[in-house]
Amino acid sequence: MKIYKADFITSGVNPEHYPEPLLPEVALAGRSNVGKSSFINKLVQRKALARTSSKPGKTQTLNFFNINDEVMFVDVPGYGYAKVSKTEREAWGKMMEKYFTTREILKGVVLLVDIRHEPSADDVIMYDFLKYYDLSVIVVATKLDKIKRGQRDKQIAAIKRKLQFDGQDTFIPFSSETGEGVDAAWEAIYRHL
User: Residue range 122-135: average pLDDT?
Assistant: First the structure.
């Protein structure tokens, strides 16, 4: 996929902060430090469109990115980070719930999980939440380059089992380091638009 435009548009916590609903949106969700920013940067072939951090909990708002004037990526705060206050976590949860349940141009959600580990309880809750609201889900298993080839099938099966993965959704092993999964991710995203 040729990327000729990838721009940060705005951040928001309430609907009045969201950009005008002119482009279909795809949200990116996952645990803190699962690789959401690296995923975005790899897809758009930029090093720092979405800021990466070794410190979990960096994303605290909904961040909107215009990609090729065709789709808006919406990076949501990571969940499961223990060093954020309970009040702040609850506020993020309400912000994300409002976005996921009211944004009519939301076409799907990319749920990122770490392929090296079974999904956390928070990952399962998020997947169940998205399915409950009948949102299309693309599960992207990040950090593929961190496991041996022989472990891939076992890890994929464990993730699908733990999530009770719906076969109508898409599952993509992905590496921000090697680029494996980039084409499959774009194909899945465009199928949802």
Answer: 95
Cα(160)–Cα(31) distance, rounded to whole angstroms?
Answer: 17
Ramachandran region, residue 35 (left: φ > 0; alpha: ψ -120 to 50; beta: rest): left
Residue of 123, 85, 132, 95 lying closest to 12 (CA atoms): 95
Pairing status of strand 106-114 against strand 137-142: parallel
Indicate the pTM of the whole model: 0.91
pLDDT in tens, 25-59: 999 999 988 989 899 999 999 887 866 544 444 55
Residue 101 has pLDDT above 70, yes or no: yes
Q: Which residues are known binding-site members for Mg(2+)?
A: 37, 59
CB within 8 A of 175, min separation 6: which ones?
A: 142, 143, 144, 145, 181
Q: Kindly indicate whether the domain formed by 6-192 is annotated with CATH number 2.60.40.420.
A: no
Residue spans per domain, the chain: 6-192
Binding residues for GTP, as ranges, are 30-37, 57-61, 75-78, 142-145, 174-176
Q: Residue 191: which H helix or E strand, with range?
A: helix 182-192
Say if strands 6-12 and 62-67 run parallel, antiparallel, or are unpaired. antiparallel
Binding-site annotation, residues? 30-37, 57-61, 75-78, 142-145, 174-176
* Per-residue tokens: 160: 């699908």
